[in-house]
Design a protein that fits this description.
Strands 1, 2, 3, 4 and 5 form a 5-stranded mixed sheet that branches. The protein is globular and about 40 Å long. It contains 2 helices and 5 strands. By secondary structure, the protein is α+β, with helices and mostly antiparallel strands. A hairpin with a 6-residue loop joins strand 3 and strand 4.
């Protein structure tokens, strides 16, 4: 899959750059102050995260892609989480997660 670039100077972003474990996604969400409160219903607690196999200790977050309307075959990557009460599914840009860890690494 080809991913659109957020910043032209950062070069191409590969699938490897966008591969994160659930614990990494949780770290990112906590650092950004994401709430456990669902904006669509009264649920406030754990969410369902769309990951690889259930038997892994720290499963890999599945990469979903939304096709870019201006470039055929180019996708914007994101992760999904789901409210267990109402099914609301907010997405999180994996570009944002990638840049968070890149900035953290570079200090």
């Amino acid at each position: 899959m080809t991913y659109s670039k957020r910043e032209p100077q950062s070069g191409p972003v590969t699938e490897e750059d966008l591969t994160f474990s659930l614990s990494q996604l949780m770290e990112y969400l906590a650092a950004k102050g994401r709430s456990t409160q669902c904006p669509m219903c009264p649920h406030n607690g754990e969410w369902i995260f769309h990951t690889g196999t259930d038997d892994e200790t720290d499963p890999r977050v599945l990469i979903f892609g939304c096709q870019n309307s201006s470039e055929q075959g180019v996708y914007t990557p994101f992760a999904l989480m789901e409210c267990p009460r109402c099914g609301f599914m907010p997405s999180t840009s994996l570009f944002a997660v990638h840049h968070y860890f890149k900035d953290k690494k570079n200090g």
